[in-house]
Design goal:
Elements lengths: L2 E2 L4 H4 L17 E2 L1 H13 L4 E6 L1 H4 L4 H13 L5 E4 L6 E3 L4 E3 L17 E3 L7 E5 L3 E8 L5 E5 L5 E5 L6 E8 L8 E7 L5 E9 L6 E6 L5 H5 L3 H10 L3 E6 L8 H18 L4 E6 L8 H15 L2 E3 L1 H4 L3 H6 L12 H17 L17 E2 L2 H11 L25 H11 L7
Parallel strand pairs: 3-15, 3-16, 16-17, 17-18
Antiparallel strand pairs: 1-19, 2-18, 4-14, 5-8, 6-7, 7-14, 8-13, 9-12, 9-14, 10-11, 10-13
């Protein structure tokens, strides 16, 4: 009988989902995913949702987790916009001169402004300007209002302008929302001009379409670890409120070589507590770093799982579930540095992460789930037809073009008829490899 099931494999084998044994004893590949994703999934199905991807260069770089995940969500739920961008030349901002104090990539600088350490502050008597790229028709500028604040002129796309004050006796993150005129060229720019007589600090901007669809935000910087996020100043918490996240994905650990399991777990608990204090309604899923062939990867993965247990968040053990470093290398997923991912690697990780969220961890079992075409119906002979079609070089027949990998048994060999044998075995109620 065909049974519609929104949780797919999480209910197909409920005793095993998020409890599958990893390659090392007593390791769980995931925790609490059905509970930690339910509200966000419902929101996205209803044309809403705001997902924050918080991490390091494995989230930040082109082709990393953010890019892959956003593309998958667009295909499945629609495009709500590029989301948040930190205020920097690496994110689509242009600055007029060297009279700016600013944050940079792969570093962090006092006073630790903004979500991702990318900000720009101007207090010089020399006139200056900054332009941001409007990646979508609606942009919301985030700026700091505080003691010592000055003012800036905003040049609106219709040719008008306005002076905005940034003084406040109490530190505040304020926003200024601008809608681009119909017919504006893609990636148009909006100019802001700090005026003499005080400090103006720009933090970043959010990009939104006018579609009823979820947004995915990139909150990440290269070289960052748990300590970098814990030392963010007051702007971090207030900006997080402005993004109104329904889900926060935290993927850290690659740059935390000097942490022990206990210290990393304790600091991750601090970060979770801080996020929950700022945005209590947000669901949180912690994702360990993958096996980058570094001795501390297993340590931080274990500490992150400890934090997930202590604070009842979702957890995905990418270190064990994603495959070994040798697997990433063999599949051509790694850049020349042997650490960062090429776009194919980022797509693989994004597919694994979203698949785990959507299936309640079912896709982390030794074999994939039998809902090959991801239509929520199984057991269903249409999944067999879809598998055989894609295996033979045909397209995925699903409405959104999202089928599972033909490497059903996840042994790294494909196309391989053993995947068909294993699929038919599980489909018939047997076991993977049976």
């Amino acid at each position: 009988m065909i049974v519609p099931d929104p949780m797919r494999a999480a209910r197909l084998i409920p005793a095993l989902a998020c409890l599958a044994a990893a390659s090392t004893a007593n390791a769980d590949l995931c925790r609490n995913l059905p509970q930690a994703y339910a509200d966000t999934r419902l929101a996205m199905e209803n044309g809403a949702g705001s997902i924050v991807c918080l991490g390091d260069s494995l989230t930040f770089r082109p082709g990393a987790l953010y890019d892959g995940l956003r593309h998958l969500i667009i295909n499945r739920y629609g495009d709500g916009g590029v989301g948040y961008r930190g205020c920097s030349i690496w994110s689509g901002a242009l600055l007029s001169n060297t009279a700016w104090l600013r944050g940079v990539i792969n570093s962090d600088s006092s006073p630790y402004y903004s979500l991702d350490g990318m900000w720009a502050s101007h207090a010089d008597s020399v006139p200056g300007w900054i332009e941001i790229t409007a990646y979508n028709p609606v942009v919301s500028l985030h700026y700091a209002a505080q003691v010592g604040g000055g003012s800036f002129i905003v040049r609106y796309p219709d040719g008008t302008f306005e002076r905005i004050q940034t003084y406040s006796p109490v530190p505040q993150v304020r926003t200024l929302t601008i809608t681009m005129p119909p017919g504006s060229p893609p990636n148009s720019r909006v100019r802001f001009e700090p005026q003499p007589g005080g400090t103006v600090t720009f933090l970043g901007w959010e990009n939104r379409t006018q579609n009823a669809a979820p947004r995915v935000h990139r909150v990440a910087n290269g070289g960052w670890g748990i300590n970098t996020y814990l030392r963010r100043n007051w702007t971090f918490d207030q900006q997080m409120v402005q993004l109104q996240p329904s889900l926060i994905l935290v993927m850290l650990g690659q740059n935390d070589a000097y942490e022990t399991r206990a210290s990393f777990g304790a600091k991750m608990i601090q970060l979770v507590d801080r996020l929950r204090a700022a945005v209590p309604a947000a669901e949180i899923v912690l994702i360990s770093s993958y096996d980058a062939n570094a001795p501390w990867n297993a340590v931080t993965a274990a500490g992150m799982e400890d934090a997930a247990i202590a604070r009842n968040t979702g957890f995905i053990d990418l270190f064990h579930a994603g495959g070994t470093h040798a697997f990433f290398a063999q599949q051509g997923y790694l850049d020349v540095d042997g650490v960062h991912w090429l776009p194919a690697g980022g797509d693989y990780v994004a597919d694994l992460v979203l698949g785990a969220l959507e299936s309640g961890g079912g896709n982390l079992l030794p074999c994939s789930d039998v809902d090959f075409n991801n239509d929520g119906l199984f057991p269903d002979v249409a999944d067999i037809d879809a598998l055989l079609g894609v295996f033979s070089g045909g397209p995925c027949p699903s409405d959104d073009g999202w089928c599972d990998s033909i490497d059903f048994n996840r042994d790294g060999l494909f196309p391989d008829t053993q995947d068909i044998d294993d699929f038919l075995s599980v489909f018939s109620g047997g076991v993977c490899g049976g």
